[in-house]
């Protein structure tokens, strides 16, 4: 049974998507369409390239340092961080668009995609979509595997003629943390600003049965917020939550909430835990998914 799945943003919590995909595959479901925002776009890109959930899990552990390696995927803009306040003190213009350059993440995704022959969005193994937002115009730039499937839209530009690593890098560009991505006449930032759970685009890709995995704010009280990034992320999550509620009205879908609000968005050591919680949440959602699909007999039973 083919299903479409939307993966939300959520920083390090995005590793939970790996566990969800693994559980669904083990249950006999085929992911026929996939979309992702922010950290969800990283998982979606690798999955669409042809990596298995187990392989994606190893990749996340490797670059996070969880397997004993030192993380080398984050490249802070130390020069810009030091120069910006100094230039401001002396009244000189400065340009610091993000604390993290993001070049190493781009090159890592590029290497992984090229190893699978996935060099342009049109070559995606399965239909794929990743949103980003143009800071200049507030317009959504939706990177998709087949732009011809979507009608022209004043509020959304659909693009399929770019590399998947550029699309993913644009979707993870959290404002002020990562440098935005310049693409043609756009300055692109995190797609979660407007669409943290890209469910609607799955309809355009052709999905009839959909699952959404929400790792952001889901209406609960969250007290484990103790730094500037967490505060900024939670602010965006709250805004995205209200937008997501509106976007989901009238849609038939199963929503999975792995319940990892206690995990810091930056805690790389929590990646294995997030993967496991995502797996468990997906297993718990199987009865609901089977009801949605109208299956008399579940596709499979997990041990």
Summed up, what is this model?
The chain is an alpha/beta fold. It has helices spanning about 15-25, 40-50, 55-65, 80-90, 105-115, 165-170, 200-205, 230-250, 270-295, and strands spanning about 1-5, 30-35, 100, 130-135, 140-145, 155-160, 175-180, 180-185, 185-190, 210-215, 255.
Question: What structural keywords apply?
Answer:
303 residues, alpha/beta, Cytosolic phospholipase A2 catalytic domain, nine-stranded mixed beta sheet, 11 strands, 17% strand, disordered C terminus
What does this structure look like?
This protein has 303 residues and is of the alpha/beta class. It has a single domain (2-293), classed as Cytosolic phospholipase A2 catalytic domain. The protein contains nine helices and eleven strands. It has helices at residues 16-26, 39-49, 53-64, 78-89, 103-114, 164-171, 200-205, 228-248, 271-293; strands at residues 2-7, 30-36, 98-100, 128-134, 140-144, 156-159, 176-178, 181-183, 186-190, 210-213, 253-256. Strands 1, 2, 4, 5, 6, 8, 9, 10 and 11 form a nine-stranded mixed β-sheet that branches. Strands 3-7 form a two-stranded parallel ribbon. Helix 1 packs antiparallel against helix 3. The chain is globular and about 65 Å long.
Oligomeric state as shown: single chain
Question: What is the count of helical runs?
Answer: 9
Strand share of the residues? 15-25%
User: How many extended strands?
Assistant: 11
- Level of helix content? 25-40%
Order of helices and strands: EHEHHHEHEEEHEEEHEHEH
Nearest-integer average pLDDT: 83
> Which homologous superfamily in CATH is the superfamily?
Cytosolic phospholipase A2 catalytic domain
Named CATH topology: Cytosolic phospholipase A2 catalytic domain
Quickly give the structural class.
Answer: alpha/beta
């Amino acid at each position: 049974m083919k299903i479409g799945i939307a993966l939300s943003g959520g920083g390090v919590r995005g590793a939970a998507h790996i566990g969800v995909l693994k559980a669904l595959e083990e249950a006999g479901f085929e992911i026929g369409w996939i979309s992702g925002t922010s950290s969800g776009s990283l998982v979606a890109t690798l999955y669409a390239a042809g990596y298995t959930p187990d392989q994606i899990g190893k990749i996340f552990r490797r670059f996070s340092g969880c397997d004993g390696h030192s993380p080398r995927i984050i490249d802070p803009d130390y020069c810009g961080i030091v120069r910006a306040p100094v230039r401001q003190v002396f009244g000189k213009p400065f340009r610091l668009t993000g604390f993290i350059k993001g070049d190493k993440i781009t090159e890592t995704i590029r290497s992984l995609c090229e190893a699978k022959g996935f060099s342009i969005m049109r070559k995606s193994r399965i239909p794929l979509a990743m949103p980003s937002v143009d800071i200049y115009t507030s317009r959504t730039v939706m990177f998709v595997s087949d732009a011809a499937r979507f009608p022209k839209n004043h509020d959304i530009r659909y693009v399929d003629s770019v590399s998947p690593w550029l699309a993913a890098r644009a979707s993870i560009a959290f404002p002020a943390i990562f440098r935005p991505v310049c693409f043609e006449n756009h300055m692109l930032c995190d797609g979660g600003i407007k669409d943290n759970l890209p469910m609607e685009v799955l309809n355009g890709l052709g999905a009839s049965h959909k699952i959404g995995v929400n790792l952001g704010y889901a209406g609960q009280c969250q007290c484990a917020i103790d730094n500037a990034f967490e505060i900024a992320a939670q602010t965006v999550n709250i805004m995205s939550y209200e937008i997501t509620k509106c976007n989901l009205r009238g849609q038939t879908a199963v929503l999975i909430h792995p319940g990892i609000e206690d995990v810091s968005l930056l805690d790389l050591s929590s990646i294995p835990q997030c993967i496991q919680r995502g797996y468990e949440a997906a297993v718990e959602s199987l009865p609901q998914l089977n009801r949605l699909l109208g299956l008399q007999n579940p596709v499979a039973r997990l041990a």
